[in-house]
Amino acid sequence: MQKYLKAIAAAVAAGAASLVTALDDGTVTAQEGVTALVAVLAALGLTWAVPNKQAPATTTEP
Q1: For residues 43 and 9, is the Cβ–Cβ distance under 8 A?
Q2: Both ends of the chain: CA-CA distance in Å?
Q3: What are 15-26's pLDDT values in tens digits?
Q4: How many CB atoms lie within 10 A of CB 1?
Q5: Which one of 9, 14, 44, 49 is least enclosed by Cβ atoms within 10 Å?
Q6: Radius of gyration for the chain, computed over Cα atoms and rounded to the nearest angstrom
């Protein structure tokens, strides 16, 4: 589950931002709904495709 949290958070943020803009006039049209869906899917796909940065190797000094 931890592997997907970054993509889920990005999708929620993209969908919320799109819907906040769509709700500016008080309604969500079909086109605005499609735009929100595309934003969510694009955020999921793009964020999932980019790997996380690897943690630097730690060295222990005596």
Answers
A1: no
A2: 37
A3: 999 999 999 999
A4: 5
A5: 49
A6: 17
